[in-house]
Design goal:
Strand order of the largest sheet: 2-1-3-4-9-10
Structural class: alpha/beta
Order of helices and strands: HEHEHEHEEHEHHEEEHEHH
Largest sheet: 6 strands, parallel
CATH topology: Rossmann fold
Number of helices: 10
Number of strands: 10
Length: about 240
Amino acid sequence: MLSCAVLLGAVSGVAEAAVIKNIVLVHGAFADGSGWSAVVQRLQGRGYHVAVVQNPLTSLEDDVRATERVLDRQSGNVLLVGHSWAGAVISQAGNSRNVRGLVYLSALAPASGESVNGLLDRLKAPMRGLTPDANGWVWLDDPQQFHTVMAGDIPLAKARELAAVQQPINVAAFQGTVSHAAWENKPSWYLITENDRALATPVQTQIAQQMQARVSRLYSSHLSMISHPDAVADFIDAAAQSFK
């Protein structure tokens, strides 16, 4: 007969294996990984190993590949977090074996066999005002427009900085198809931002409902990780802690 100590050790080992220690953060369009800095600092302060993906924003396939490279470097279970456009990226990359759950922040989440354009058309919310240049790149580098669309609750001076480092996205990315949406068979969380001029709150709500995600709401602009880093870190932490 196994001793109590052996049994307790076995149970403890199973519980320890389920704990999320790694968090991978994926940025959206018109941004780069530095936008996560305040959230990274808070999550590291809570003992997590945090890695941030730098998306090329050239196509869905390229961004998924960039995310998978970072996932491959993690030792142990991962909570994969995507903001905005990166919701499509983590929906595909989240099929990696070490990803236990997915967190979506004001994010797009196509279903299996669907593109971002297809998702928004299905929800009767097609993208407007995003005109690509002659080479197919969509920019948001006008400081005032960036402030209005992305960062209404961030000081204008900070919005100017963010507009200066914004990264354009190739319009082809929105046509890339998710072959299998990881949220269809892995637990997911969705943070809905209720003062969002980039992705309307009712559209976010529909997306979260179709995913059957665990939902929280925050009165924030689209860039919640910058304007409300404490709340965003709390949301990610709560998702990670749920696996205990």
